[in-house]
Amino acid sequence: MKTILAFAALLSATGAGAAEWVEIGSDTDATYYVDLASIEVEADTVRVVKKGVYPHSLTEDLGGGPKVFTQTLGIIELDCARRINRVVQVDMIGPDDAVVWSSGRMKRRMWEDVRPNTHGEATLDFVCGKAMPH
């Protein structure tokens, strides 16, 4: 029940109830999507929900035992002008589409430079282009 509530809270907090997923890239680990319907601008910060879909189940030991997941769903904050980002929440979604682990809201995450030629850069360029057109 706790995992369902965490996922419901993530969806309601981000407005992702009517998600509009757009693929923004892939690498050897996963294919990445952003939800256009979740884009929010607050001052210099743009917030978006991003999903990673893995071709095979992954297992991580995240306290309380191993968690098997096939997707991650995260809230990403971007500073388009400074080209930095941070993950402020991440949920791991299991093969049955239920949340198997959630970080909850991480209020003190540090901003990080967006590395060139990564899905992070593709996310920043795409989302900032949509949220702050020139």
Description:
The protein is built from two helices and eight strands. The chain is α+β, with helices and mostly antiparallel strands and 134 residues long. It has a single domain (2-131), classed as Lipocalin (Beta Barrel), CATH 2.40.128.710. Strands 1, 2, 3, 4, 5, 6, 7 and 8 form an eight-stranded antiparallel β-sheet that branches. The longest helix has 13 residues, at 2-14.
Write the layout of secondary structure elements.
Layout: H1 2-14, E1 21-26, E2 31-35, E3 40-42, E4 45-61, E5 66-79, E6 84-93, E7 99-102, E8 112-113, H2 119-131
Antiparallel strand pairs: 1-2, 2-4, 3-4, 4-5, 5-6, 6-7, 6-8
Question: What descriptive keywords fit this protein?
Answer:
2 helices, alpha+beta, disordered N terminus
CATH topology: Lipocalin
**Main β sheet profile:** 8 strands, antiparallel
- Overall, the morphology is globular
CATH architectural group: Beta Barrel
Condensed summary:
The protein has helices spanning about 1-15, 120-130, and strands at about 20-25, 30-35, 40, 45-60, 65-80, 85-95, 100, 110-115. The protein has about 130 residues and is of the alpha+beta class.
